[in-house]
Design brief:
Elements (H helix, E strand, L loop, with lengths): L29 H27 L1 H8 L3 H28 L2 H22 L2 H27 L7 H10 L4 H14 L4 H20 L13 H27 L5 H22 L8 H4 L2 H16 L1 H13 L4 H24 L6 H19 L12 H27 L5 H41 L6 H12 L8 H57 L5
């Protein structure tokens, strides 16, 4: 029996919160509803924009702070480490103390550390800012959804959830659109100053426009913190392996293996403790049921497929020398596609369309990968408009249905299962994105080396065509280098550089092909599961009273 920590108001039936920790749903005027929607947009974007700005400008920040690629990889990793671990306690915290308190702590800490970084600088402070960003983002995403729920009557709850959970996805295209302007008048300081400003604006908005009161119940137990103390470092170690594996190469550093072993031991220990608890934080028996296992695999894969955009298209354009300035129009298209996907998902939302929307998103990912296959070194950002609009459309479409599908499954067993769902969703989305980037970058490098070997093996100076090309390449330096031997050497180096560029383009085409094959395989599996479930339901229907 839940113990109420505060007396509850005399709510009418339609005003009662859905769950302890959620806000009540009183009547608001249209102006107040619009204000709640604006705060939802501000807070949701704040949660992800800081990390997106760092990711989009990581090479610039590394250079200005004097970081190695390995050190630079710790910045986005610190965000994910903290974000995953804090999400394990957010739901229970808002049930017992309210989410606004957690948000004030998180956003205040985020702004303070960011401002301190502007004064101190350095690698350690940069990592601390990203960790604080991950802490704040753990609440910002939930706040975005809860504020958006207040923007419409209760009858539109499903549609508002779709919009609320989709808002943080706008952060990445916005980061690419804002980066050239933020960096044009200064160095990395402008990025962090903008981050701090957003955090302070969000903090002010949350304090001024409060969520309606909800029910607060006692939910924390001492064993929760034992499980957290095991699960949090285990998840952080796993994130570290995914973040650093490519930089140090997977099999070359023994400490990566030790981290991975430590992650496995700690996570299994946490699951063992949870499995034998009377009131577990994680419902381990529920996690191994067929429906939830399918949900975990599906949620992981669908996030993995979004890497076709974040690593594939953007990575290829970067390889071809395109910077944020040149890619701004492309990210306008991506932003429009994400908004269109969110709106389309919200407008067509119903319990019967959840699976159809997820399948549509997978189809869009597969079609986009097919369109991107066959790229050449002559392609420019405008050549990616259609394919990346489709990826953005799918990305904006899938998140809302995924959350609602998981919550529906959890609530069938009771409110305590929502904590498990929240942890599962956070893990699958964060690890899916990181695994996608890590594995696709590894695959791309492998294919690039294969193609480079093939291309350079065919460069025989005795071949008349090769000799002519070497002479043409050396001619570029005729006005600068008078020594013919040195000029020929420079021409050979330039030709090797061109061969490597072409090898990279071929390797990215293999990445697009792999993404397409995975999307089609995932689509086939999803259709099989959906059709089998429909057949079972139809057979069971006549037996129902």
């Amino acid at each position: 029996m839940a113990v109420l920590l505060k007396p509850t108001p005399n709510w009418e039936e339609h005003e009662k919160p859905t769950l302890p920790g959620s806000a009540s749903m009183p009547y608001h005027t249209p102006a107040v509803r619009a204000a709640y929607a604006c705060v939802a947009l501000l807070v949701g974007i704040t949660g992800g924009l800081g990390n997106a700005l760092v990711t989009a400008n990581l090479a610039t920040i590394q250079g200005q702070l004097g970081l190695t690629p390995s050190e630079g990889a710790w910045l986005p990793a610190a965000y994910v480490m903290v974000n995953i671990t804090v999400n394990m306690l957010v739901f229970k915290f808002r049930q017992q103390y309210g989410l606004r308190l957690f948000a004030e702590i998180g956003l205040g800490l985020y702004a303070a550390v960011t401002l301190l970084h502007l004064m101190v600088g350095g690698f350690a402070m940069a990592v601390a800012v990203r960790a604080a960003s991950g802490f704040a983002a753990a609440t910002a995403t939930t706040l975005s959804m809860l504020y958006m729920l207040q923007a419409a009557p209760r009858a539109y709850t499903g549609k508002m959830v779709v919009l609320g959970v989709g808002i943080p996805q706008l952060a990445t295209p916005l980061a690419w659109l804002l980066s050239p302007t933020l960096l044009v008048f200064g160095q990395w300081h402008n990025l962090y100053l903008f981050e701090a400003g957003l955090a302070l604006c969000s903090l002010a908005a949350v304090v001024v426009l409060k969520l309606p009161p909800g029910m607060h119940i006692k939910v924390f137990e001492k064993k929760d913190f034992i499980s957290f103390a095991l699960m949090a470092p285990g998840a952080a170690m796993l994130v570290a392996v995914l973040a650093q594996g490519y930089s140090h190469w997977w099999l070359d550093e023994a400490w990566l293996a030790y981290l991975l072993m430590g992650a496995v031991v700690l996570i299994l220990a946490a699951l063992y403790v949870e499995h034998h608890r009377e009131n577990p934080l994680l419902q381990t028996r529920w996690l191994v049921t067929p429906n939830i296992l399918r949900f975990i695999i599906g949620a992981f894969l669908i996030r993995f497929l979004t890497s076709e955009q974040t690593f594939g298209a953007v990575g290829l354009l970067r390889t071809l020398g395109m910077g944020p300035d040149q890619m701004q129009p492309l990210f306008v298209v991506i932003l429009a596609g994400t908004v269109a996907g969110m709106v389309a998902s919200a407008l067509t939302f119903s319990p019967k369309t959840l699976i159809a929307q997820l399948i549509a998103a997978i189809v869009l990912f597969g079609v986009a990968a097919l369109l991107d296959y066959g790229r050449t070194s002559l392609d420019r950002p405008q050549d990616f408009y259609l394919s990346q609009f489709l990826v953005a459309l799918g990305s904006g479409m899938f998140m809302g249905p995924l959350v609602l599908l998981g919550i529906t499954q959890a609530l069938k067993f009771g409110p305590n299962y929502v904590v498990t769902f929240t942890v599962v969703l956070s893990l699958t989305q964060s690890l899916g994105a990181m695994t996608g980037s890590a594995l696709l970058s590894t695959y791309q490098l492998h294919r690039e080396q294969v193609y480079s070997s093939e291309l350079t093996a065919d460069i025989n100076p005795a071949d008349p065509q090769v000799a002519q090309r070497l002479q043409q390449q050396g001619g570029v330096y005729r006005a600068l280098i008078t020594d013919p031997v040195l000029r020929n050497a420079q021409g050979t180096a330039l030709l090797a550089q061109i061969a490597r560029r072409e090898a990279n383009v071929r390797a990215f085409n293999d990445v697009f092909a792999l993404s397409g094959v995975l999307a089609m395989a995932f689509l086939s599996w999803s259709l099989f599961v959906a059709i089998r479930a429909a057949i079972r339901n139809r057979r069971a229907a006549p037996n129902n009273p």
